Amino acid sequence: MKILSVFGLFLLFAFPLGMLFVGFSSLEVNCTRKQTGQLPDCEIQEVRLFGLFKRRAVVLSVNSIGYKTQDVHTSSRVTLGSTVVLTGSNGSFPITQAVSNVGSAWKSDVINKVDWFLKTPNERTLVPHINERNIFGWIGVVYLAFIALCYVFWFGRKFNGRD
After folding, report:
1. How far is Cα 144 from Cα 136, in angstroms, rounded to an integer?
2. d(Cα 151, Cα 47) in Å, to the nearest integer?
């Protein structure tokens, strides 16, 4: 019976944590050229879950940036999600691990900035910074607050002798 309780608690917290993971992130793409006219190297830094998840990738000799799309399976259907990908001599790297169909404004903004930087060989550095806040994160916050409120009331009743 305790295993079911632990499993239930896991499920109770897995949903809002997943929503917070997808909904709130800080992304930075730091591109630099060693010399004018060369292809830049870019470092991607992604921070999620308020610093609990960190990812870093280095893309060497970046020559293009674009969208990567893939199917996102939900309980009732399949939708198309996307992320932004930098391509260089060592492969293609997504700017974020979370593929979703939200955030089109920041995605197109980063693509436009990096594309301009690639076409302007006299520029030496570019550092776009993105703080993504979307509906998924806010749903996770509300859900977590509701769970916390329920536990506060439950503990209050338990220690006041009502249960």
Report:
1. 12
2. 29
